[in-house]
Amino acid sequence: MFKLVLMVFILMASQAFAEGESKGGVPMQYQGDWADDLKHCGATDVMNLTITARYIKAWESEGRIVSIVKNGENEVAFVSALTGEGETWLAFNYYRLSKDKRQLTDITDPLTETPAFRYRCPSKK
User: Fold this and answer.
1) How many Cα atoms sit within 13 Å of 7 on the Cβ side?
2) Which of 5, 66, 78, 108 has its Cα between 20 and 30 A from that of 26?
3) What whole-number distance in Å separates Cα of residue 47 and Cα of residue 121?
4) φ, ψ for residue 116 (rounded to 5)?
5) What is the mean pLDDT of each run of 10 residues along the chain (125 residues)?
6) Handedness of CA 25, 57, 1, 96 (dihedral sign)
7) Domain extent listing, the chain
């Protein structure tokens, strides 16, 4: 089932990319450092996440974001070519941003009872 969902997403993302949907990379409101607790910002933590215009870095994986699809102003989905622990794979992630743009919720798996929430870390100066 997951492979089917991933394939449909890749096809949709390819079409959106061809139409210019993701020309500028990941929208600015999603870029930055995110942590499950603000006291974990700047530390090495399993839930920390960094998103840039074309790159995503998590606990033990990181890689190039190859497709981006926006769903309105507060939802975005990525397909990323990730590497970690000697392996390479394609990953699909779907995120919802709170209205105040301070909380990022991973809604990749809608059946998850407790989705992963992350909070925007203060900017590094």
Assistant:
1) 4
2) 5
3) 12
4) -80, 120
5) 53 47 82 96 90 95 97 96 96 96 93 88 82
6) negative
7) 2-120
